[in-house]
Amino acid sequence: MRQLIRGMQPGAGKMARDLRADAFRGIALWFILIDHIPGNRLGGLTLRNVALSDATEAFVLLAGYAAGLAYGATLDRHGWAFAAAALLRRLGTLYVAHIFLFVVFTAQVGYSAAALESSAYLDEMHLDVFGEQPYLALLQALLLRFQPAFLDILPLYIVLMLMLVPALPLLRWPWLLMGLSVAGYVVVRLFGLNLPNWVDGGWFFNPLAWQVLFFTGCLLGYTPWREGRRGPAPAVPFHPALIGAAILALLLGLVIVLIGDYGEQWLAELPQPLAELLTTIDKTGLHPFRLISVLALAYLVGHAVPRDANWLRSRLAAPFVLMGQHGLPVFCVGIFLAFLGRLALEMDDRWPMQVAVNLAGLAALISIGIIGAWYRLRERGESAHSATNPAAVGLRAPAASSTTAR
Amino acid sequence: MTLGAGRVLLLLGLLLAPPAATAGGMACDAPPELLAANAALPATARAASTGSLRILIVGSASVLGPGTSGPSAAWPVRLEALIRARAPHLKLDMVTRGARGLTTAETGAIIAAELARSPFNLVLWQAGTAEAVRGLDLDEMVEELHAGLAKVVAAGADAVLMDHQFSRFIRANANVDAYRDALRLTAAAHGVPVLRRWDLMQAWAEDDIVDVERASRQERVAATDKLNDCLAQAMQALIRDGVAEARGRPGQR
Asked: Pfam families attached here (chain B) (predicted)?
C-alpha cells in the first residue's frame, strides 16, 4: 500500500510533499463519515468530543491548504487565466457530485419512509418536501438553496472554491488577502449575513464566514516560485508564548465541551450572559471560539509533528495518507456511505451492526484511496519508484492533491 | 439484639434502594437519571402548597396526541389525570395549545399571548421538532428559546422544556442531534429542566417497553397510547422532582 503514496521518500534537499496534510486530511475524512451517521457509537470518540472545532473545520482548513498549494503553483507557472480555468473545472466536478448525492438522499428518504410505514406517525414531518413540490425542490437543489441534512459541506466547498477564482492573484500579497478575508468575516458576523436557504434562513455552513478558515489554509499552502523552484512552505514560527496560548485555548475549549456534554447543570451557576454565550457557539457562522480552536490545534500539531516524522510513512498511517491524497473521491464516497450507514443503523443499531458499519465504511474509504492512487500511477505510465524520484518530481507540476487539481 | 439487626438492615435497605426501585418501575421503568429535574420549580411548589395549580402546555402536533385512540390519550390529558389522581384536592387548571409544524418562534408567541391573558405557575414547552425536521435556523431556535424562557420567568412561572421524539427515521434523515444539544444547553443556561423525550423513548425502545416505530400496523394505536401514558408519567415524575428540589428535598420524588 505504501508504494502507492506520493512523496513517500523525502527528496534530498528538495521540498517534498508534506505528508502531514495528507494524513490529517485522511483522518478528518474518516471522522466526517463517522459523524455523518447519527447513532454511531464511534461518534463519541471523534474530535468534536474534546474540542470546540471538529472534522469540518479541519477539512476546510486542509482543503484551503491543498488549494493554495496546487492552484498557487498553477498560477505561478501558467498565469491566472489557466489557473482559474482549472479551478472552474474542479468546481464542475464538485457540483455534479453534489447533485448526484442529492438524488441519492431523495431516494433514501423515500425508501426509509416506505420501509417504516410510518406515514401517520411522521405526519407532522415536512421532510418529504421533494414529494410535496418536486419541481420546485429540484430547482432549489440545483441553485444550492435546498440543502438536506448532511448535504451541506459540498455546497460550502463549491462556494469557497468559487471565491478563490478572483482571489487567486492575491495569494502573492498574503497580508492583503488575509486582511480582506478577516474584514469580511467580521462584517458577516456583526451583521448576520448569510446566503439564503430555500426554507427561511441561511445555509447551515455560511460560506461568507467560513472563507476566513479556507483562505488561511490557502495562504499556508501557497509556496511562491523563487528562481525556478518552490520556496519553503510558509509556517507560523515556533514561539513559546503562542504555544502556551494555543494550549490554553484548547484546554478552555475542552472544558466548554465537557460542560456541554456532562455538566450542563453548572451552566445555571454561571452569570447569565456567560451561560448564554456558551450556548451560542454556533457552527453556522464559524464562531470565533471554533475558529481559534482549529487554528490552535493546527499550530500545535504543525510543531509537534515534524515533516519527516517516521510514523507518517508507517504501515498504520498509509491508509489515511492515501485517503488524504485522494480527498475528493473519498469525501464523496464517504457522504454516500453515510447514507448506507444511516439506513443500516435505522434497521438495527445494536453493536454487531455498529461494528459492521464502521469496518465496512473505513474499508471502503481506504479502497477508494488505493484505487485512486493506482489509477493515477497507471494513467501517468509511471512506476511507483520513479514517482518518488526527486528529478521526476522536479519536472512535473507540483504534486497536487486530487482534492483540488486534476 | 436480632431485632435490632433486622431494623438496621431494613433501614439500610430503605436508604440504599434507589427511588425508582421503591416505586416499582416508575414511569414505565425509565432510567431514573432521565426523571431528575436537576433544577428547582419554586413557583410550582408554592402554587401546590396553596392548593391551586395552573399549567400551560404548548407545543407542536405531539401535544394533541396524534396516532392515539383519541384526544383523551394524549400525554397532556394523561398528565392531568395522573396529577388529579395523586392530589384530588388540588385545584388544577390545565390549558393545552398546539398545532402541526409550529416553530419555536410560533409556540413562543402562543406562550407570550397566554401569559398575557392569565397567569400560570408552570409552562411545559415542547420545542425544536419543526426546526430539526425542516432544517431551519438553529441559532434562531436558540434565540427564541432564550427569549421565551426569559418571558416565562418574568411572568413568575416555572418552565420545563420537552425535546424531540426519538425516531430512527428522523435520526437518519435530519440533523436532529445538533438541535437536541442546543435545546438542552439553552435550558441549562436558564436552570430549566428538560424532559428528555428522545433519550426516554430510546431507552423504552431498547428495553422493549414501547417502540411506536417498530410496532406493527395493528399494534400501533395501542403503542402510541402507551407512549403518551409513559410520557405523562415521566413528566409527572420530573415535576415532582423539581418541586422536591424547590422545597429543599426532604420530599419524595
From this structure: NonGDSL
- Contact present, A4 and A297 (Cβ < 8 Å): no
- Specify the CATH superfamily of domain B26-246: SGNH hydrolase (3.40.50.1110)
pLDDT in tens, B48-86: 999 999 999 999 888 998 888 999 999 999 999 999 999
- Please indicate if any CB of chain B lies within 8 Å of the CB of A282: yes
- The reply to whether A223 falls in a domain is yes
Answer whether A25's CB lies under 8 Å from A406's CB: no
A189 neighbourhood in chain B, CB within 8 Å: none
**Beta bridge partners of residue A196, listed in sequence order:** A202
How near does any CA of chain A get to the CA of B217, in Å?
8
Q: Please report where in the chains the cell 405526519 appears, as a residue.
A: A123
Strand B158-162, strand B194-195: pairing: parallel
Question: Between residues 122 and 151 of chain A, which touch chain B (CB distance below 8 Å)?
Answer: 122-127, 147-150
Q: Which residue of A has its CA nearest to B143?
A: A280
CA distance between the termini of chain B: 34
Residues whose CB falls within 8 Å of the CB of residue B140, separated by 6 or more in sequence, listed in order = A201, B104, B105, B131
Q: How far apart (Å, rounded) are the C-alpha atoms in residues A347 and A360?
A: 16
* Domain range for A31: 26-395
Question: Is there a domain that residue A9 lies in?
Answer: no
pLDDT range class, residue A17, cuts 50, 70, 90: confident
The pLDDT assigned to B25 comes to 67
Residue A392 has pLDDT above 70, yes or no: no
Instruction: Judge whether A201 lies within some domain.
Output: yes
> Residue ranges per domain, chain B?
26-246
**Do the domain assignments include residue A107?**
yes
Q: What is the pLDDT of residues A342-369, one digit of tens each?
A: 889 888 888 999 999 999 999 999 999 9
Mean pLDDT of chain A: 86
